[in-house]
Design a protein that fits this description.
It is built from three helices and 13 strands, in the order E-E-E-H-E-E-E-E-H-E-E-H-E-E-E-E. With 336 residues, the chain is mainly β. The chain folds into two domains: 2-175, Hotdog Thioesterase (Thiol Ester Dehydrase, Chain A), CATH 3.10.129.10; 188-334, Thiol Ester Dehydrase, Chain A. Strands 1, 2, 3, 4, 5, 6, 7, 8, 9, 10, 11, 12 and 13 form a 13-stranded antiparallel β-sheet that branches.
């Protein structure tokens, strides 16, 4: 595989974005129209080529999944909702401008997000109407095999109602359905898929939720150094499983990382940064374990962790069969 780096543009040209209606659901791999957040797609400047794009989106004021929070996160836009919007934007750009077939299967190797506005800033608070979002998409690298484009690295700068909100970056690749079937068979060692593994969820308040249906971890053991819990998978959840999947989706793994982190450090925090990498599939029919540890090497030692505004880094590993499948580092800020 070869990787072609795209030179940085000399300037940023602002193209219009629109927020009157969503784009076709097929472009973001969603069945439910209500789960489509992207509203427009355009090139930043057509004569500059396929290096910069403008995407419009809209964040709902309330959402049964992304809006279900206790503590400081309640009443604010969810950073994971913003990252989901960025994920949809990235996939839509590949289909609209790079001719990636709609039936392609996507893999996300890395997915990161950093808040550009302080998490207690007014930009994170929903207003009297849904927030109109503008996303500037830059292509950082193109991944090519045998002269065929198979992946893109993207950086997405996101603003809401004109205020900077978050910068998201990720490495996205895609395969044909035949390649996907072969990849999945190899990952499972040829074993047939069984029934979805059932685990008992934690109490919602332990993981910062109200609705028990939105709990995706079960806390089993806690000590001063780490918190462990089993991954809870509900394939009937309309948000996390908008359509049938043959593995645990990355969106659920990110939420599991957040919930086990909250169980570890307490629910009086908000997420300010996410860094994630996915190395193996997490299977639906096998137990998986989430482990949260305070990452002392990355903790802001200049603050008392009990004070509002103190930054804490929590490292979450998701394991299955004794093997690490995903790693998520969460930067959280204590606040009211």
């Amino acid at each position: 595989m070869t990787t072609h780096m795209t030179p940085a543009p000399d300037h940023l040209t602002v193209a219009p974005t629109f927020h009157s209606q969503t784009i076709p659901r097929e472009l973001v791999h969603r069945c439910s129209v209500s789960e489509v957040f992207v509203t427009s797609l355009s090139r930043a400047q057509p004569d500059l080529g396929d290096d910069e794009f403008r995407v419009g989106a809209q964040l709902p004021r309330m959402h049964a999944y992304f809006g279900d929070h206790r503590g400081p996160q309640a009443g604010r836009h969810d950073p994971l909702l913003v990252m989901e919007t960025a994920r949809q934007a990235a996939i839509a750009v590949t289909h609209q401008f790079f001719d990636v077939p709609l039936d392609s299967a996507f893999l996300v190797r890395t997915f990161n997000g950093v808040a550009d506005a302080p998490v207690d800033d007014g930009a994170w608070r929903p207003g009297s109407r849904p927030a109109d979002v503008d996303i500037s998409v830059g292509i950082g690298a193109r991944h090519v095999v045998a002269d065929r484009l198979i992946g893109l690295d993207m950086v997405l700068a996101i603003s809401a109602d004109g205020a900077p909100l978050m910068t998201v970056d990720g490495s996205f690749s895609w395969t044909t359905r035949a390649q996907w079937s072969a990849l999945r068979a190899q990952a499972r060692g040829g074993a047939e898929r069984g029934r979805v593994h059932v685990a008992e969820p934690a109490h919602p308040h332990v993981v910062g939720r109200f609705d028990p249906r939105n709990v995706v971890v079960g806390v089993r053991a806690r000590d001063g150094h780490e918190t462990r819990g089993e991954l809870v998978v509900d394939t009937a959840h309309p948000g996390l499983f908008d359509h049938e999947l043959d593995h645990v989706p990355g969106t659920l793994l990110l939420e599991a990382a957040r919930q086990i982190a909250l169980a570890h450090v307490g629910t009086d925090v908000r997420i300010a940064a996410v860094r994630s990498s996915f190395g193996r599939f997490v299977e639906l029919d096998r137990p998986a374990r989430c482990i949260a540890r305070t990452d002392h090497a990355c903790t802001d030692h200049g603050h008392d962790p009990a004070d509002p505004g103190a930054a804490i880094s929590v490292l979450v590993t998701i394991e299955q069969g004794g093997t690490a499948c995903a790693e998520v580092r969460l930067g959280v800020v204590i606040g009211t």
